[in-house]
Design a protein that fits this description.
This protein has about 130 residues and is an all-alpha fold. About 85% of the residues lie in helices and about 0% in strands. It has helices spanning about 5-20, 20-25, 30-55, 55-60, 65-85, 90-95, 100-125. The longest helix is centred in the last third of the chain and has 27 residues, at about 100-125.
């Protein structure tokens, strides 16, 4: 994986492969997962920056506004990701379809890690 775009492309490929029976090559589930991950990463970054300047008690009253902004960002990212990744499964199948088993397992573990860490960060920062 050479850049961030490759990571999201691989993420799209693996999730679409897992849900291919339901989604086909459109990969809607993968697009939603990628958009969710990107939204959480943006939210984590925003919360980390805000926490440097404000306490939780000072930002509590803006939680509903922030969640609305987060939902808006999610839908915008869904739109752009849908345009970018839709029906690219076969292209990525050629690129990663014959990776060896060890590499596939390691990358699968990294995908699970990548999908869970932003949730853990946002939950942790929301509690302190």
């Amino acid at each position: 994986m050479k850049n961030v775009s490759d990571i999201f492309e691989y993420l799209y490929y693996r999730i679409t492969k897992a849900y291919y029976k339901w989604d086909g090559e459109e990969g809607v589930t993968a697009i939603i997962a990628i958009s969710m991950l990107q939204t959480l990463l943006i939210g984590d970054l925003a919360i980390i920056i805000i926490r440097f300047f404000f306490d939780r008690s000072e930002t509590f009253e803006y939680a509903k506004i922030a969640s609305g902004i987060g939902i808006g960002i999610f839908f915008v990212l869904c739109f752009f990701n849908f345009r970018k990744y839709r029906k690219k499964f076969n292209e990525y199948q050629v690129k990663w379809g014959n990776e060896n088993k060890v590499k596939r397992i390691i990358r699968g573990i990294l995908i699970i890690f990548l999908l869970t860490i932003p949730w853990l960060i946002i939950i942790y920062l929301g509690r302190i």
